[in-house]
Design a protein that fits this description.
The protein is an alpha/beta fold. The protein folds into two domains: 112 residues, Rossmann fold; 150 residues, Rossmann fold (3-Layer(aba) Sandwich), CATH 3.40.50. Helix content is 46%, strand content 15%. The chain has a four-stranded parallel sheet with strand order 2-1-3-4, sandwiched between helices. Strand 5, helix 6 and strand 6 form a beta-alpha-beta unit. Helix 2 packs parallel to helix 3. The radius of gyration is 24 Å and the shape is elongated. InterPro entries: Kinase-pyrophosphorylase, P-loop_NTPase, PSRP. Belongs to the pyruvate, phosphate/water dikinase regulatory protein family. PSRP subfamily. Pfam families: Kinase-PPPase.
């Protein structure tokens, strides 16, 4: 079954997209064609969109689904009048919340992603710059300035997780790749041990790792199953010595991995619950 889905907003559409994706994830037997329609903020644009909805309905043999965050009632009614299954993601929440708070909503578009707290926005930008400057173990001498340090074998998901932590949480994130040199000595450098209280290890199933590496370097020893198995096995031995949290990225998304890291950090605001191991 094929269905067209429109994510519609009078602003960026980020909220409609995020909530819509969460709902669609429960229906993985259907192939959704996803169309993003931000800045539908005039009657003319809304009516043009209803024409696209009709075209999608004619093509699919079923009316399209519309996830929308429209605060303008007039534009909302135009979209509802189209041939679609319309879901207003704010409608069921804003009015009850307004009644509870005792104040009317501002009904200003784009508020959820506006720069309402300049200090935090600046912190996020600084964190992103830090993550990019301290990627792939470039500056281990900077680990003491990081909020989070990730370690793992090549292509286990360190860089995208660091960038996500920086972008969404404003955390200065760095990472250290475990290399053949580390495997030979069975240990990581002292600078990595020194940041053990904020260190997280990433692991991944060899089969998944092999597929990822094969895309990067097809047919190379680096992408062989034997190499992937050996890398994961030796990395696990190092993690055991370090005694740090180990997170599996095989089936978990970057968002899920990041949420686990945030939870552990919050649970250990004063450091790890167990005493730090001494570096042999």
């Amino acid at each position: 079954m094929n269905r067209t889905v429109f994510f519609v907003s009078e602003s960026t559409g980020i909220t409609a997209e995020t909530l819509g994706h969460s709902l669609l994830s429960q229906f993985d037997t259907i192939d959704f064609e996803q169309v993003y329609m931000p800045y539908i903020d005039t009657d003319l644009r809304a009516r043009a969109l209803t024409q696209r909805m009709q075209e999608a309905a004619d093509r699919d043999g079923a009316r399209p689904i519309v996830f929308a965050t429209m605060l303008n009632n007039e534009i909302r009614e135009i979209l509802k009048g189209g041939n679609c299954f319309y879901m207003e993601l704010f409608e069921g929440f804003v009015e009850p919340l307004s009644a509870e708070l005792g104040v009317p909503p501002s009904r200003k578009a784009g508020q959820s992603h506006a720069i309402t707290k300049p200090s935090f926005y600046t912190k996020r930008i600084e964190a992103i710059n830090f993550a990019m400057a301290n990627d792939d173990g470039i500056r281990p001498d900077n680990f003491h300035r990081a909020d989070v340090v990730l370690t793992g074998v090549s292509r286990s998901g360190k860089t995208p997780t660091c960038l996500y932590l920086a972008m969404h949480y404003g955390l200065r994130s760095a990472n250290y790749p475990i290399t053949e040199e580390d495997f030979e000595r069975g240990d990581v450098p002292q600078l990595v041990w020194d940041c053990r209280h904020k260190l997280f290890a990433l692991t991944i199933d060899p089969q998944r790792l092999q597929l990822i590496r094969e895309e990067r370097r097809p047919g190379s020893p680096y992408a062989s199953m034997a190499r992937c198995q050996d890398d994961i096995r030796m990395a696990q031995q190092i993690y055991k010595r370090l005694q740090v949290p180990v997170l599996n990225t095989t089936t978990q998304s970057i968002e899920e991995i990041a949420s686990h890291i945030i939870k552990i950090l919050k649970d250990n605001l004063d450091g790890w619950s167990e005493p730090l191991a001494e570096h042999p």
